[in-house]
């Protein structure tokens, strides 16, 4: 650490980077995952697929990966998941920062919570999309949980996600599949479930980019509703291009689906007790 401090002398510009969830960027070899196995209170067996905290050799292995990605760049120092860039001039600093970021992207160390963030907005990391688009159709309760967990994580990028996934989530509402002991039971599958499964995969194969909102420009709110639920898209047109800045959907509670409903817009000033 003293070596790093000594290398900072005579520099004027500094940038500090932190690799969020750094250890989780390291995949565990399939043949070694059994070494991380554990059971929960119900006796279910789980294995880590990504490096978790507590593994003895992990800090050294992660340090080697970061050092390998950065190489021997002048003015760049790393300590576990922290990276410090120090430069004497602003132009030199920007050039080094760009080089570091490009190398982190190439090494697969640039994702944040499974997302890629750039100047255009937010979109899912290719690794996430690849896992979903290559996933075969689920045959058991556990496989369906896995698929819905992945798509649910990216629901903010899927228009009307809850409504599209309704045939699949309805399966899990069946009491016969509610128990943890039912994870290996086969699930019913018809054209409705297959259409929902294929639709979710196809949507994620070419996902929307969620743009950053510009509060100085007008917004458009697009809404939709059906007997299954409601959906909405918050849009904004910038430089002639209309993009989504937020997507939302929600299915009706089962007890509400038994009734015929008519949605009526009411001005906010008229909602004296909005929760009533």
What labels describe this entry?
single chain, alpha+beta, Alpha-Beta Plaits, Ubiquitin-like (UB roll), 10 strands, 30% helix, 20% strand
Describe this structure in words.
The protein is α+β, with helices and mostly antiparallel strands and 276 residues long. The protein folds into three domains: 1-110, Reverse transcriptase/Diguanylate cyclase domain (Alpha-Beta Plaits); 135-205, Alpha-Beta Plaits, CATH 3.30.70; 210-256, Ubiquitin-like (UB roll) (Roll). Helix content is 30%, strand content 20%. It has helices at residues 2-6, 58-70, 90-106, 126-133, 141-153, 161-164, 166-172, 191-205, and strands spanning 13-18, 38-39, 45-46, 76-79, 82-87, 115-118, 121-124, 220-225, 229-238, 241-251. It has a three-stranded antiparallel sheet. A three-stranded antiparallel sheet has the order 8-9-10. The protein has a two-stranded antiparallel ribbon with strand order 2-3. The longest helix has 17 residues, at 90-106. The radius of gyration is 24 Å and the shape is flat. The model has no long low-confidence stretch (mean pLDDT 77).
CATH architecture annotation of the largest domain? 2-Layer Sandwich
List the secondary-structure elements in sequence, H or E.
HEEEHEEHEEHHHHHEEE
Q: Which strand-content bin applies to the residues?
A: 15-25%
Overall mean pLDDT stands at: 77
Provide a count of the helices: 8
What is the quaternary state of this protein? single chain
CATH superfamily of the largest domain: Reverse transcriptase/Diguanylate cyclase domain
């Amino acid at each position: 650490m003293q070596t790093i401090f000594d290398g900072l002398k005579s520099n004027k510009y500094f940038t500090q980077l932190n690799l969020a969830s750094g250890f989780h960027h390291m995949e565990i070899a399939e043949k070694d995952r059994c070494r991380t196995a554990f059971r929960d209170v119900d006796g279910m067996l789980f294995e880590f697929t990504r490096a978790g905290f507590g593994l003895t050799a992990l800090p050294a292995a992660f340090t080697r990966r970061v050092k390998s990605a950065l190489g021997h760049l002048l003015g760049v120092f790393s300590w576990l998941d922290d990276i410090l860039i120090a430069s004497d001039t602003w132009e030199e600093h920007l050039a080094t920062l760009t080089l570091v970021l490009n190398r982190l992207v190439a090494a697969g160390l640039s994702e944040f919570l499974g997302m890629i963030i750039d100047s255009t907005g937010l979109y899912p990391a290719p690794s996430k999309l690849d896992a979903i688009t290559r996933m075969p159709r689920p045959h058991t309760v556990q496989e369906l949980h896995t698929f819905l967990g992945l798509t649910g994580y990216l629901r903010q990028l899927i228009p009307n996600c809850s409504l599209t996934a309704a045939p699949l989530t309805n399966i899990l509402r069946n009491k016969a599949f509610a128990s943890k002991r039912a994870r290996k039971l086969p699930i019913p599958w018809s054209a409705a479930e297959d259409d929902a499964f294929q639709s979710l995969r196809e949507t994620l194969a070419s996902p929307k980019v969620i743009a950053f909102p510009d509060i100085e420009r007008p917004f458009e709110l697009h809404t939709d509703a059906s007997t299954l639920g409601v959906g909405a898209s918050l849009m904004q047109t910038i430089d002639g291009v209309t993009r989504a800045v937020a997507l939302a959907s929600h299915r009706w509670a089962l007890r509400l689906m038994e009734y015929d409903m008519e949605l009526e817009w009411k001005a906010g000033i008229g909602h004296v007790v909005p929760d009533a």
